[in-house]
Every structure is written in structure tokens, then in C-alpha cells.
Amino acid sequence: MADNKLSILWTNADPITSHHMVMMYATNAMLRGWWDEVTVIIWGATAKYVAEDHEIREKMDEARKAGVKFSACIACARNL
Description:
By secondary structure, the chain is an alpha/beta fold. Helices cover about 55% and strands about 20% of the residues. It has a three-stranded parallel beta sheet with strand order 1-2-3. Strand 1, helix 1 (about 15-30) and strand 2 form a beta-alpha-beta unit. Helix 1 (about 15-30) runs parallel beside helix 3. The chain is globular. The model has no long low-confidence stretch (mean pLDDT about 95).
């Protein structure tokens, strides 16, 4: 049996892409049952964007409440 898991590598710090692709798809994928597990991996400049933007952190909170998991590159988080 295949795993029904999705990993999204979030490398684009563009707000439009972040809100209307990454967060919208990840959240709806869980709410609508498209995947059993969704993990968003924060990578590159996205680490800086997440640290500095309140609106995207609110979207991330909504996604977490829907069951989305987040992980991040430790080197990116430290350096950015």
C-alpha cells in the first residue's frame, strides 16, 4: 500500500505564491482529505519571509489547525 503523504518544498518567498499556492493547497489538501498527511518544508529565502511576515504566520497557524505539519532547514533558519 502506497503512502498517501505530500511534502511541499517551499522555496519561493513571493507573497502571492505563498498565500495562493503553498498555504491554500496545503490547507485544503488536509481539510478536503486529498492527502492523509501534508508537510511543508521551509527552505531558503522563505525562512526569512516567515520570520518577518505576520500575515503568512497567520496562514501557517490556520494550516496547522487543519493538520498541516511544518519543518525547516536549520541552516537557512540560522543564516536568514
